[in-house]
Design a protein that fits this description.
- The chain is of the alpha/beta class.
- The protein folds into three domains: about 90 residues, Arc Repressor Mutant, subunit A; about 55 residues, no CATH class; about 190 residues, 3-Layer(aba) Sandwich (Rossmann fold).
- It is about 40% helix and about 20% strand.
- The protein contains ten helices and 15 strands.
- The strands form five sheets. Strands 10-9-8-11-14-15 form a six-stranded mixed beta sheet, with helices on both faces.
- Strand 8, helix 6 and strand 9 form a beta-alpha-beta unit.
- Helix 4 packs across helix 6, helix 7 packs parallel to helix 8 and helix 8 runs parallel beside helix 9.
- The N and C termini lie far apart (about 60 Å).
- About 5% of the residues have low confidence.
């Protein structure tokens, strides 16, 4: 029997060892199913169809456990819903969560173990995480900061139980480490060029978005993450909608995406704000009044000037923009460099297989330079 697994350059097929990893038939097939769902934009039926094709060609199953058994187990274990009237399949909230968790491990797993980045500062003071160390009371400390256990112990040692009393010099204060909060907007280009030239660029972008969302949810629960997609127009999507994200026959209205991201961050009562933008092409579209102004040939000054103006506005608002450019055209790189210099942000000309590592490192490093 052969076994399919996802590698850096796509799917690889090798002989299956039934003792490897100790996984049963369901777990092995579930791994493949979860890997396929981002490619099918959450279409369970299409993913299952692909698995049946792979099974016929590479024998993913055997006589002891077939694809029919796997589908029934998916339904029984809460991964798959079947409409009794139409017979159509759809994935469940549990599956959506599982995809995010698997994306987190796939994209950020190794990096998280080696990264020194922790979402906190060395600066003591009022905060939301207790510090095991205490210090003597100083004028201005609040009642909430006093460690009464240590303070009472000090008073007993100084005066004994019979003449118990507490003086200012007995008081001890427990420090709290300030844990910086960050509001992030992740912009994802969904223009048609994200699937042109035989290269799927939207699936890696979706995986990075799901991994970042799960990282913030589990490690930085007080942070906020908003997802903005931009094609001809911009729109907000929920984290649960990311697996279903599809590229449309759109141009690239970077201005609309930036305007929406800025509007979101203006409403966040947080001094630490940032924008991540994943795009593979040049800005080619503006919406002026009720009509679209489009130009797919080269860089249009009317469009790029609006982009640069927004980059400058973000700089005034202290909102850095990190652009992850999945393109190698020199003239596009020059524009991104000018955009980045105008904003004072960063630019990465990232290959698809390194997109996650670039984004993770920049996401974590921003915490060590948090502004107050």
């Amino acid at each position: 029997m052969n076994y399919v697994e996802e590698g850096m350059n796509g799917y690889q097929f090798r002989s299956f060892d039934p003792t490897e990893g100790g996984k049963g038939g369901f777990e092995r097939l579930l791994d493949v199913f979860m890997q396929l769902l981002p490619y099918t934009s959450g279409d369970a039926a299409e993913a299952l169809d692909w698995m049946n094709q792979l099974d016929r060609k590479y024998r993913l199953t055997d006589e002891s456990y077939g694809m029919g058994d796997f589908i029934e187990d998916l339904k029984e274990k809460g991964y798959l819903n079947e409409d009794p009237r139409s017979g159509t399949f759809s994935i469940t909230a549990r599956t959506e969560k599982d995809i995010r968790q698997r994306s987190l491990e796939e994209v950020f797993g190794k990096l998280r173990k080696s990264s020194p980045g922790e979402h906190r500062t060395n600066r003591p003071g009022q905060g939301d995480e207790g510090n095991p160390e205490t210090r003597p009371y100083r004028f201005g400390d609040t009642l909430e900061q006093i460690d009464f256990v240590s303070s009472i112990r000090n008073a007993q040692i100084s005066r004994g139980i019979d003449e118990f009393g507490m003086a200012e010099e007995d008081l001890e204060v427990r420090e709290t480490d300030f844990k910086a909060q960050t509001s992030t907007v992740l912009m994802i280009d969904i223009s048609h060029s994200m699937i042109l030239y035989g290269e799927d660029r939207i699936t890696p972008a979706k995986k990075v978005a799901m991994a970042l969302a799960e990282l913030i949810r589990t490690k930085y629960p007080k942070d906020t993450l908003d997802i903005v997609t931009f094609g001809d127009d911009a729109s907000m999507i929920e984290v649960k909608d990311i697996p279903y994200l599809q590229v449309g026959p759109f141009h690239t209205n970077t201005v609309a995406g930036l305007e929406m991201a800025m509007d979101i961050l203006r409403r966040r009562r947080n001094p630490n704000r940032r924008i991540f933008m994943i795009t593979d092409g040049k800005p080619t579209c503006l919406k002026i009044g009720g009509r679209y102004y489009k130009n797919s040939f080269g860089l249009d000054r009317k469009i790029t000037t609006r982009c640069l103006n927004l980059a400058a506005q973000c700089k005034k608002l202290k909102i850095p923009i990190t652009t992850f450019m999945i393109a190698s055209d020199p003239y596009l790189q020059r524009f991104v460099q000018e955009f980045t210099e105008t904003n004072g942000g960063k630019a990465f000309f990232a290959s698809l297989d390194r997109l996650g590592s670039f984004l993770f490192r920049d996401f974590e490093s921003g915490r060590s330079r948090t502004m107050y």
